[in-house]
Amino acid sequence: MSTLFDVAHDKIMDRIEILKVLMPERTKQxxxxxxxxxxxxxxxxxxxxxxxxxxxxxxxxxxxQHVRDxxxxxxxxxxxxxxxxxKYQAALLDDSILELVDSELERRGTAxxxxxxxxxRACLEGLSERSRETIRMRYFEGLxxxxxxxxLGRKPETVYKALQRIYVTLAQCIQKKMAALEMGDxxx
Length: 188
Description:
Strand content: under 5%
Structural class: mainly alpha
Helix content: over 70%
Shape: flat
């Protein structure tokens, strides 16, 4: 005969079950953290903090989807908290922008994240070598815009304008690739 404790215990997800749910999400979640924080080590820190919170609250989850959804919200909130506490100074992200990003992420969901990441990769390959170098220094090396300008021998204003053009180009490219996918095409 099972006791109330046994029934309750059967419903609690253990760490292994939680990890089985979250490990396939790891790359996407760290990518999200990086897109907010723009620093690899801080993205990893935010991800680790999220895992700790999930494990601390393992008794509240009603199943794998609940864990998955909750982990994404905790991760976004942790990234925003890191920015707000000035542990990390993000450029151009005030509370109103963070709220817009958060509502967009809530609306969009995560189902198409791998496709969007693949579309971004394809679009980055389509950029000129100079544009890819600018993106690499700014986002993969995490250099501030003025350091990128210095390394490229250009004025900071020129680099900021170039980055704006690159953003627009990438956004349009990703939209076209995602629309093509919806029509049955491939990402190529």
